[in-house]
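ok trying again, last paste got cut off:
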Amino acid sequence: MQLSPYIKDLLYRYECVIIPGLGAFLANYTSASINVDSSTFYPPGKTISFNRQLQTNDGLLANYVASVEGISYELALQKIRTFTGSLSLKLSKGERVTLDTIGDFSLTPENKIQFLPCDTENFNITSFGLSTFVSSEILRDLQESKGVAPQKTPISGAPNKSVAPFIKYAAIGLIALAVSGLTGLKIYEGSVQEHNFAQKQKANSKLEKQIQQATFSISSPLPTLEVPVIKQTGKYHVVAGAFRVKENAERKVAQLHEKGFAAINLGVNKYGLHQVVYASYQNRLQALKNLRTIKATQNNDAWLLVKEIALH
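nice, full thing came through this time. structure:
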């Protein structure tokens, strides 16, 4: 399965696209630039980089694949795992893997994944239709380049004196018409404002009378509803997953609540992901014990986050 078209679509809309089990593509904005030596103009764009550390599934790519192909989320996730497994196998054999219009993957002598982005695609949607172009050299006049002002050619011929009085009287008439028009416009604006103010006062008065005539009575008040609120504190958190889309994180919290976990959403981390945890603990040994149980029975990808967060 080739995921390049799906990853490409998401890079146009998001700054981080995670490939579960492989890493994340990061799109950083770059402003327009000029290469002075070659007189080349470059439009605003995005530089694509790859971060091997971000591998936790946030649901963005899997949900997109599922919606485009019309399949279930689990099947889309399985296809992504097959893709990452095939890519890792090719890299281990020393092959170079190319993702169309995104970049190339290769393995360094130290067995580290190296990513070389492709420079033919501009993922900045605000630059749609803009392309790189080379400006031709501008040749200035020899006199201007030396600082000599160009000579002006005098216009010969005397003005027609018979036309001058007519132009003067016509200009005076136009000024008088403009002044009278502005005066009439001011008078009209003043009358409109007075009319609007009077209508507003009349409407306010009518509304006050209706409010005074209205009667509100509650014969039987509703019973008090008490809702239990889950409160947790602690710096040891068993993470169930990190999600780019907030709705996916809330759906995961609801699923864990149905299974009996005191799950909550820790909020957005520095990568813009919503972290959902099974539970939080004050004691590190208790957190590790529950983590082992969850990895064995619920989620093998669960991990422990150590961060001091007060949850209310």
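cool. Residues 214-218 have pLDDT under 50 and may be disordered. Residues 233-310 form a domain with the Alpha-Beta Plaits fold (CATH 3.30.70.1070).
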